Amino acid sequence: MKKPLLFKIPTSEKESFRVQLDDQAYFYDPLHFHPELQLTYIVEGTGTFFIGDHIQNFKAGDVILIGSNLTHVFRNEKAYYEEGSTLRAKAISVFFTETSFGEKFFSLPEAYLIKRLLQKSVRGLMFKKVARQKIASKMRVLYQKEGFDRMLYFLELLQEMARTEDIEFLSSIGYSRYLRESDSKKINDVFEFVLANFSKPIKLQEVADIANMSVTSFCRYFKLRTRKTFSLFLNEIRVGHACKLLKENQFNISEICYECGFNNISNFNRQFKAITDFTPTEYKKRYTNN
């Protein structure tokens, strides 16, 4: 398993910040961090992201701001890794620092709101509702611009982001951005194991062994690092995959139940309802009209 990486963002003397389009079979998937802030708009793709101590499914249209040195990864669903897959992972991302426009630029009185936004980003932010749609649209335009026009447009975008209240904090207040490497590696190894094996029965002893801990210590450790129990995390991954299969409408609910690692229909229905507020049948009707 790869260790969490201090990732080096490519830079150029011709740009003070980087706007990047990723279009590949799957997103870069080791747990990593970098000093640059990262604003990402998911153009295409589904999966699970891990930001700080927060774990959640992502989908096309999501817009997320990740603070400096905040550990994160966007991991696509296992179908993206299968041989012959035609699925694509696409995202537009902006990488910048608090000094991209000058040592004290964001300390100017006129940039007060943006400075506050950057301070909030240390927990990771997800933009919601109308704000998400506006930011996504402007990021498409930003990617097409160059030079000074790109810089001005990005500053306007930051100001608009700073003014919105349609945001959701991701990582907890008490989360430290500077985890020990051993801590990050344990979480990354468990994360990768679950994403690769959630469709099979997974015993706590298996994941505790991966973290080189007793079951009791692992349960306490996982809850402390992610703010949720391991069983809830596992069910969220399974239900997230079930949602994708229900939307595709190629399997019946019973088949999906077992494909996602649940051992009986009643438990599948119960967990699905608890996580999505819908039964599988309601969810399927909502998204497929069937």
Using brief descriptors, characterize the structure shown:
290 residues; Jelly Rolls; 6-stranded antiparallel β-sheet; single chain; 3-stranded antiparallel β-sheet; Arc Repressor Mutant, subunit A; alpha+beta; 2 domains
Question: How would you explain this protein's 3D organization?
Answer:
The chain has 290 residues and is an alpha+beta fold. Helices cover 43% and strands 18% of the residues. It has a six-stranded antiparallel beta sheet, with helices on one face.
Total DSSP E strands: 11
Round the mean pLDDT to the nearest integer and report it: 88
> Oligomeric form of this entry?
single chain
Regarding CATH, which class of the largest domain? Mainly Beta
The unreliable regions are: none
- Give the DSSP E fraction (strand runs of 2 or more residues): 15-25%
Described by strand count, sense and barrel closure, the largest sheet is: 6 strands, antiparallel
Order of helices and strands: EEEEEEEEEHEHHEHHHHHHH
Query: Helix count, per DSSP?
Result: 10
Overall number of structural domains: 2
Distance between the termini: 42 Å
Shape, please?
A: globular
Assigned CATH architecture of the largest domain: Sandwich
CATH superfamily heading of the largest domain: Regulatory protein AraC
Strand arrangement in the largest pleated sheet: 2-9-4-7-10-11
CATH topology of the largest domain: Jelly Rolls
State the helical fraction.
40-55%
Q: Structural class, from helix and strand content?
A: alpha+beta
List the helices and strands and how they pair.
Elements: E1 5-6, E2 18-24, E3 32-33, E4 37-44, E5 47-51, E6 54-58, E7 63-66, E8 72-76, E9 89-96, H1 112-120, E10 125-127, H2 129-144, H3 147-163, E11 167-169, H4 181-197, H5 204-210, H6 215-226, H7 230-248, H8 253-259, H9 265-276, H10 280-288
Parallel strand pairs: 1-3
Antiparallel strand pairs: 2-9, 4-7, 4-9, 5-6, 5-8, 7-10, 10-11
